[in-house]
Backbone:
């Protein structure tokens, strides 16, 4: 069975974006990009909600071609252009997009099918509404959380719709310059 792996920035108080979706508080750097690169290297499928997918589509297909593109931009653009994309959306039902599957109904059943297909990990980058749905059904196997040293007080929460306790095992932690901490947890009970 394939693993469903979440890679997400969060504030110390558990928000992935401000009340209006702002993410200007997120710290990034080469060491964090290296971890993201390791995760994408282990994944052959990316799972997105519609909003995150559209943000990704607006940047990553041509990011490597831009003058002064960083190592991360070149590597992630190459991965993004080759990886299979799965988009959870009720409004893109009939979209015909190359190398992209749209899930608009029976999300738990469709994700279960994806996990049973042969292949590498399925990576979730962003997409908090999809993450909420997947946590409700306990589908996420690995959590890679970049905890930023900020309290937002309000915004879009990372943890929502958790019906049962989800016991986690801390696999590793790393502190970056600027105070961001990367925590890698695996679940004991994930589907």
Residues:
């Amino acid at each position: 069975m394939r693993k469903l792996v979440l890679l997400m920035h969060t504030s110390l108080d558990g928000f992935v974006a401000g009340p209006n979706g702002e993410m200007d508080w997120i710290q990034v750097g080469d060491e964090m990009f290296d971890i993201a690169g390791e995760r994408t290297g282990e994944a052959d499928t990316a799972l997105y909600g519609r909003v995150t997918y559209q943000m990704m589509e607006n940047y990553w297909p041509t990011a490597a071609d831009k003058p002064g593109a960083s190592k991360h931009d070149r590597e992630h653009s190459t991965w993004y252009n080759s990886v299979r994309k799965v988009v959870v959306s009720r409004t893109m039902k009939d979209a015909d997009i190359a190398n992209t599957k749209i899930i608009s109904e029976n999300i738990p059943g469709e994700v279960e099918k994806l996990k049973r297909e042969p292949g590498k990990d399925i990576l979730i980058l962003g997409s908090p509404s999809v993450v909420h749905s997947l946590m409700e059904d306990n589908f996420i196997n690995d959590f890679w959380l970049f905890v930023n040293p900020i309290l937002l007080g309000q915004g879009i929460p990372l943890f929502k719709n958790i019906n049962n306790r989800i016991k986690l095992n801390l696999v590793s932690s790393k502190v970056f310059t600027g105070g961001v901490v990367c925590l890698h947890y695996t679940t004991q009970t994930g589907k």
User: Anything to note?
Assistant: The longest strand covers residues 4-11. The chain has a mean pLDDT of 91. Residues 30-41 form the longest helix (12 residues). DSSP finds five helices and ten strands in the chain.
